Every structure is written in structure tokens, then in C-alpha cells.
Amino acid sequence: MNNKIANPNPVGTKFLSEYPKCNYPSPSTCDTSSDDTAYNFFKPGLDPTTAQRFDVRIDWAKSEKQRIFGRFSFDRLFNSTYNAFGNMWDLNYAQNVTNGRNILIADDYTLNPTTVLQLRYSFTRHYESQGGDPSQVGFDITTLGFPSSLAAQEVYKLLPFVVFNDAVGGIGGTADYNTFIYASENSDADVSISKVLGKHEISTGFEYLKRFLNVGQPPAPSGSYLFDISATDQSTANGGGGSDFASLLAGMGTEPGSENSDYPNFSKDIFAAESSPYYAAFVEDTYHLSKAVTITAGLRWDIFGGRTERHNRLEYFDPAVSGTVSGVSYTGAEIYVNGGNRSPFKTNLTNFGPRLGFSWQPAEHLLIRGGAGFYYGPTTQMVSSATFDSDGFSSDTQWNATCYNADGNTVYNGTATCAGASDGSPAASTTGIYSLSNPFPNGVVQLLTNPSGVGNNLGTTLSTVLHSQRTPTIYNYNFGWEYQFAHQVVLSVGYVGSRGLFLPLGSADLNQLSLSTIGSYQAGLVNTMVPNQWESIQPSTNANYGLATVPQWVALQEFPQFGSGSYGAGNGVVVHGYPGGDSDYSSLQTKVQKRLSSHFTALASFTWAKLITDDANPPLGFVGSHLGAPQDWRNLNFEHSVSPQDVKYQFTGSASYDLPIGKGRALQLNGVGDAILGGWTANGILYMSTGVPIASPVVGTYPGAPEGLSFFNQRPNLTCDPSAGAPHTAATWFTPNCFTYPASPYVAGNAPAYLDHVRTMGAKDVDLSVYKQFSIGEKKELRFELSSYNIANRAQLGMPNVPSIFAVNTEVGQSAAFGQVSATVNSPRQFQFGARFTF
Fold first, then answer.
1. pLDDT tens readout for residues 494-505
2. Quick count: other Cβ atoms within 10 Å of Cβ 43?
3. Closest by alpha carbon to 36, among 253, 258, 242, 259?
């Protein structure tokens, strides 16, 4: 009764006012629902795409010994998602314009009958401009109620956005890292020479590649604010009664340490200009031991030169260097590059990759092949996002929105209602300090001008790299056979495998406490206070600024002089590309091919595979479905499971048939009849596969945990097979019945990172096309084609919603939402008409 917010936050009110009116399941009744997590807005739309492309190629046979050719390619692509709101407030809307150019020049020169020299040079330029609704560019955030002091800190002015943790979704400017400005130039030169010496064919060569990359991808340049039920629920211990939307109207964020979720709360971003070189040399010998046996052996040397930035705005973390600032001594600091040492990386000169292969034809129609090799890269030393290691030239500021009161519930941070608040602290207010109207009362983390020494960025979260680390290494191996039957039918069967080592983790926080430390100190991590010996070096943006004592966990961090002052991974020394992961892939691959005869050709392939990894969240985590984070990145045995990219079974079948109608075919046609109905070819493709594994849920807030804190990314215990009796419908793909709380909030759950037996819906796709070619004279052809994709218009359901176990057990809406699928991952039926003129 009377649970009303007397003075709603004006910023939150403005955001909510921009939501379109609900229309689902009925426009007349949807706004009377008491469930604020059920989907209530539906609007179908199209994702428009336009593309232009052309290629020009020139071949010049200068002499019998020399052949020169060149190619120029141009393409321009525009695509966007559907803007469901029809304005700049749809945070999921994005549009992209991509322009590409490529030039290739090649020269093949025969030096003598046994020696050929090959020269290649290519230049590629790629430019992308991506963002949300263009009308938001230059937006003035003071019109929403944010302070002018915050507006003055924006590097790139856009519309801020808010995200709802429980209701899912959000509103505002461009989310999902969709603001993206990118320009790259690659110059690639290759020289190789091949020599025949008796039974040997020896090749050797060199490759040089130079990459230039100008890129900016500001995730939250005008602010990103996360809300859940914790600000308005009855208690953080039970999660009952709260609402994300009510928390927004109160202007109060989430629990301490969880305020930024997938995005920083406020970012001052760098638009970098990077470059990196790559060198490679190789030698290979193909030895024809006999007419039936060929052996190929080779060695490749890969050198990934460390990337540099035009203005030397890069750094790396040295865990061994020592420093003292304001009487505080510490170990570990960021080292900035300079004119004499421009790269933050030490070049690895030991990446030698041997390769060995063979082929054996024991019978006329039987061929056996096998091979293995070492392969290296790509690596974080190559050009990538400069935000990985440009601290001081870019910064993220965390919204320390809340603190705990004496009852263990969240209240506005910095106010008199906080437990242990000092005398004279201001009263709590929906528009006061640390509310949405004033989220950073102490300012945001500032940029550096000329950093030097080892005393930079103290008391802030670091985003960095290591100076010396192993290059990602892949061992590839395969063995198989191929047999040709009668009627041009060929069957191939083979084993293909790989082993990945030193794979880069998306990130690893060196200050994250290990599970053994958490298990040893347990509640004492937050209940035991120790002197704040780092007080003199903590900036005003640090959550522990001005405090005489801090919780025990601060002192237990490996590098306590760094971090935002909030508990949890991602707030300390975040190392990108840490080479800690591994993978193991095994597959049986089969293929049956009916080569062209009697106007018919067909190809069918089947793969049975298994991909296992402990690195389910690599830097390219946006490729596929990568949810969650390690329970303890220092002990990845907890993460060893089936990969989120594992597809157990895949089948592809394709066929092409020249229809028996027209001149010279079974149904003879001439003249106009042949021109219209004759000479058509029909093609079909069938693709089927199993789905990918679904991530296990996380525990979330463990009941009774001190201050409602999640001490690590804890997964639940798995007590049965979640796939047994799973409905596999859009409303409920699977249920949470097999997941329970672990024994305490300080121990790891036994649920695997990804569930091998609970997978998304697999693919069943049929594509059909017909085409006809018209000959115009001797050297000109005109081709017409009609294609259809997903002709059955089958919807392939996407990843189901997997809320935390705490949310499932405390919120009716989240319990009902577990296992719901709200999106598809394939395109609806499409038709395409095309024409091509060749001359």
C-alpha cells in the first residue's frame, strides 16, 4: 500500500516517457498487467540492405616466360536493423555503411624450364561508419536533466541509454557497442620461387604485411546506466516486490559493484591510429617418392611485430616494477611507450611452424592422405582496439550508485542513510548525489597528457596488456581416404582434429580473488575492516576515497593500489588477450560427390564433431553465443566444457540438374519456345545441423550472502539432466528444475559452463534456384537467375532466456521467463532476382 515515489527522478521519467505504448497481447489491456517483465510490445519490420559491387581484371601475356595480371574490386554495402521505435530512442537500432577497395598486381616469370618466380602485391582499404539513429549525434544531455559538468566531459556526444537487468532490454542511445568508426589499410607483398630438382619440388619465399587501422568504438560516451529490482525490492536478501522501472524512477542504480554490467557507465574514448607489421618466411619440399607416394614437408617462421600508435598512446602492465607515491609503496604499474620504444609488446621470434603431409595411391581408385602442422596467431600484438591498452588516453568511470544501510539494503551512496556514514552526510534524495541526476558527483576519471614514471592511474581500473606473452598456437592434424566408384561417384572419409594452446581470454582481472582465497576468508572479506593504507593515492572517483578503513578484500588483491574501489572482476587490473585458454576439436568428416554426367551433379557432406574448450569468452566473443564468465580465470578446470560454438552434427546436400527441356535435350524445343522455356538449370541446397550448447545459469545473489554480494561468477549445482523432458517450445525451451544453490556463496558450482545436452534449435534450411544463360555472339553471355532462400519459411529459434537462479526463486516474472525464446537467428523466406552480363 502507498508504495509511491513522491518525487520521481526527472531523468528517469524522461526515459520512460519515450517508450512506445504497449500493444501486446492486446492494446486495450496490456497496460493493466502487474507483471513488468513480460513482453508487451510487438512490431514487425524489415532489416534493409543494399549492395553495389564490381570487379575489373586485366591479364597480359607479355611473353612466353612472363605473365602479368591485375584486379581492382569495389564494393559498398548498407544495412541496418529495424528501428522499432521509429526514433533515436531504440537502443538496439544500428545502421552500417561499409566501403571496400582492393588492388592486386601479380607477375609470374619463368626463369628457366625448372624455375618459376612469383611476385604479388595487394592493397586493401576498408572503411565502416556505424551507429544508431543519426539524429542523436551531438545530443545535449543537459536537456534530459544531467549536469552541465558531465556534458563537458563528453568526447563524442550521443544520447545516453539505460539498461534493465530483470525486465531485459532498455531505452536510449546506441547500445551493443554499435557506435563504430573504422578505417583500415593493408599492404601485402609476397615473393616466392619454385624449383624442380629431380623428384623434388622446392619452394621458398617471404611475406611482408603492414596493417594500418584507425578506429574508434565508444561504448558509452554519454553514459550507460543499469537498473534492476534491488533499489525498490523489499530486501536484497529475498528480491521480492521490486521493479526495474521503479528503480529508474527513483534514480537509484544496482547493488555496489554491479553498476556497469556489459558497458562502462561513462567512457572517455580514444580514436586511435595504429599500425603493425607481420613477417613470414617459408621453405617447402614436395618429394615424389614414387608414382603412388608423395611426401610434403615444410617450415614456416611467423613474426608478429608489436603494434604501435601514431601518437604513442599505448601502455602495458609490468607486474614486477616497484614504485612509491605519497608514501605508499607498491609493486606493479603501467609502463607507457615512447619515441624510442613505441610498442607495448615484446616480439616473439620463436614461432616456427613445421608441417608434414603425405598422399598414397595404393590402388587406381583409392587415395589416402594425411598431414599435421603447427600454426600461430592471430595475436593481440596485431592491430586491434586501442582501448585494450591506452589507459590515461581513454577512461571508464563507474557509477558508484548505491551503498548498503544498516539493514543490508541498498540506498543512495554518499548519503546519511549509508551504514557508517560520517557526520554531515547529505540526506537521501531522488535527485541528490549518486542519483541518476548526479551520477558522478566527484567527476569522471580524467585523461593524462604526458604520462611518465610508474605512478599513473593509481586508484582506478586498468585496461591493459602484458608486455611478453605466448602467441596463440594451433596444432592441426588430419587423416583420410578417398575412393571413386562407378558413374563418377567419389566417397571421402576423414578425421580432422586440432589442439589450441595459449588462446586469448577476453579479459582477466589480476585483482580478482581466487576461489581458494574466497573460501579461506569467506564473510570476513567484507565484514572485517583493515586500515586504508592507500587513502593518499586514491582519487575522488574511487569508491573508497576518504575512508580510513576498507574491507579485507581490498588488502587481499594482488595489486590493491589499482581498482575502482568496488568489489568484483572487471574493477581492478584487467588484462586483455591473456594467453590462458585451450581447446580440443575432433571430427569425422564424410563427403559423397556425383561429378557432372548426364546433366546432373550432386554433393553431400556430413560432419560429426566435438569442440571442447575452457576459453568460452575469447576477444571475439560477439561471434556466436558467448554468455557468462569464468568462475575463476586462474583455475580454468572449472570451465572445461563443450564450446558455445560446438555444432555436433552438420549435413549439407546440394544438387544441380540441367532440365531436359530445350534444344538438344529430351524435350526438343526450338525458336521462341527454346528461348523462353529451354536451357534452364535447377539447383537445390539442404542444410541441417544441431544447435549450439546453452550456457548454464549463474547463481546471482546467494541467499544470506553478506551485503547481498556475489563474491564471484558462481554457477549453480547441476542435480539432473536439464534436457530430460524439456518442452523445447518458444514459451519454455527448458526449465530450471535441475539447478540448485551450491553449499555456500564461497564455493564453485558443479554445473558446466555450457550444457552439452541442452542446445538451441538446430537448422533445417532449403534453398532453391533456377538460371538460364544466353549466348550473345562468341564471347558474350547474359545470365538470368531466380533464387529463393529458406523456401519453407522455417523459423529457427534463438538462444533462450536464462535468468539467475536467485531471480528465478524470488521473482515470479523471472521464473516464468526462464527458457523463453524471444528471437530467431535465421532470415525469413527471401526471393532474389539477378542478371549478369559477361564479355
1. 999 999 999 998
2. 12
3. 242
On average, the pLDDT of the chain sits at: 91
- 316 with 389: CB under 8 angstroms? yes
Total Cβ atoms within 10 A of residue 4: 8
In 405-472, the DSSP E strands lie at: 410-412, 462-464
The cell 515515489 sits on which residue?
5
CA–CA gap between residue 781 and residue 34 (Å, rounded): 65
Residue labelled with grid coordinates 618429394: 287
Three cell numbers, residue 683: 539447383
Alpha helices in 664-745 (DSSP H): 671-677
Between 33 and 334, residue with greater pLDDT: 334
| Contact present, 141 and 160 (Cβ < 8 Å) | yes
pLDDT given for residue 1 in this prediction: 44
Does residue 723 contact residue 756 with C-beta atoms inside 8 Å? Answer: no
Rounded CA gap, 243 and 230, in Å?
8
The amino acid present at 192, given as its one-letter code, is: S
Rounded to a whole number, what is the largest CA-CA distance in the chain? Answer: 100
By CB atoms closer than 10 A (0-12, 13-18, 19+), residue 683 is: middle
Question: Which residues, at least 6 apart from 341, have a Cβ–Cβ distance to it below 8 Å?
Answer: none
Instruction: Calculate mean pLDDT across residues 159-172.
Output: 88
Q: What is the pLDDT of residue 813?
A: 79
Alpha-carbon torsion 525, 531, 537, 542, what sign?
positive
Please state, in angstroms and rounded to a whole number, the distance separating the CA atoms of residues 540 and 105. 57
The DSSP secondary structure of 102-167, one letter per residue, reads EEEEEEEEEEETTEEEEEEEEEEEEEEEEES-GGGTT--GGGGT--HHHHTT-SS----EEEETTT
Instruction: Say if residue 375's pLDDT is above 60.
Output: yes
Q: Are 568 and 710 in contact (CB under 8 A)?
A: yes
